[in-house]
Amino acid sequence: MRIDLHTHSTASDGTDTPAELVRNAAAAGLDVVALTDHDTTRGHAEAIAAAPEGLTLVAGAELSCRLDGVSLHMLAYLFDPEEPAFAAERELVRDDRVPRARAMVGKLRELGVPVTWEQVARIAGDGSVGRPHVAEALVELGVVPDVSGAFTLDWLADGGRAHVEKHELDPVEAIRLVKAAGGVTVFAHPLAVKRGECVPESAIAMLAEAGLDGIEVDHMDHDLPTRARLRGLAGELGLLTTGSSDYHGSRKTCGLGDCTTDPEIYGEITRRATGAFPVPGAGGPALGVS
Q1: With b meaning 16 or more CB within 10 Å and e meaning fewer, what string describes 133-149?
Q2: How far apart are CA 286 and CA 79, in angstroms?
Q3: Interior CA angle at 86 toward 14 and 45, to 5°?
Q4: Which of these, 149, 129, 151, lies nearest to 139 by C-alpha position?
Q5: What span, in angstroms and rounded, lies between the C-alpha atoms of 219 and 106?
Q6: Four-point Cα dihedral 274, 191, 231, 55, nearest 10
Q7: Longest CA pairwise span in the chain (Å)
Q8: Burial (CB count <10 Å: 0-12, 13-18, 19+), residue 268
Q9: Distance (Å, rounded) from C-alpha 120 to C-alpha 102?
């Protein structure tokens, strides 16, 4: 089985629609794919309806969190999307995205960049607007060569000249909310230093004590020594280890299935979840572990 537990669609900042994503996942030879758009479940229904036979969909989300001033992302899997407290918190995070993006546009204009809100809104389309859409606007204007070039202190990185803070969850509270909704939590790319400041290993231990289920180890932003270090830490803390592509379509260079999760780990995630279950595509055989 080939299992990719971290992908994005146009419901947040990917370039594939949810339907295109599941079809592309099947074409890439995946057996299981998780749709984990930022702070939203809006793409789930379309992905479920379009999932081809032989592909199983895991419904999830990637939650925006902050600990001691450092941003981090928490992957949540197989939770009840209707659980009121968790749904309300996701809505708070989403509602902050538009004013935040508008504020970044304002800062960029003050820096002499002729970006407009209309341009960013066009790029975002129906998705949940975020920094990648502002970054793509900078690419269109020739300010930076690619999206990653916008995530520097010159522009949109944390602490950068055009960066604007947003509403983010405390990760301990995120774990509590996900578990109360029957879900499973995995700390996404915890040592991706190329993205900016990361929390220390002591914070990962603290989150493990708070009920964190796992950490994403195999990821394009972790080199081999970092992956080995994280596997050792996971062993010490009793955490599951996952691997995923963090696919965003054409917005990033990674492809579906570039990193994958061991089937036994996937089975343990499905065993722990009580809020929802993996959905087999087109009435095909269930690939999840009951």
Answers
A1: bbbbbbbeeebbeebbe
A2: 18
A3: 45
A4: 149
A5: 33
A6: 50
A7: 56
A8: middle
A9: 9
> Which is it for strands 279-280 and 56-67: parallel, antiparallel or unpaired?
antiparallel
For 104-115, the pLDDT digits (tens) are: 999 999 999 999
Residue 60 has pLDDT above 50, yes or no: yes
Judge whether 288 and 31 are in contact, CB under 8 Å. Answer: no
Instruction: Give the residue carrying structure tokens 């996937």.
Output: 266
| Distant-in-sequence, close-in-space partners of 36: CB < 8 Å, separation ≥ 6 | 5, 6, 7, 8, 60, 61, 62, 75, 76, 77
Beta bridge mates, 67 = 70
pLDDT in tens, 228-260: 999 999 999 999 999 999 999 988 889 999 999
pLDDT at 194: 81
- Position 4 confidence tier, pLDDT thresholds 50, 70, 90: very high
Are the CB atoms for 269 and 77 separated by under 8 Å? yes
> 141-163 pLDDT, tens per residue?
999 999 989 999 999 988 899 99
* Beta carbons within 8 Å of 167's beta carbon, 6+ residues apart: 64, 92, 93, 95, 96
Q: What residues does 153 pair with on adjacent strands?
A: none
Question: What backbone phi and psi angles, to 5 degrees, belong to 249?
Answer: 70, -140
Which tokens is 283 given? 């009435």
Q: What is the pLDDT of residue 195?
A: 79
Q: Which amino acid is at 216?
A: E
pLDDT band for position 40 (cuts 50, 70, 90): very high
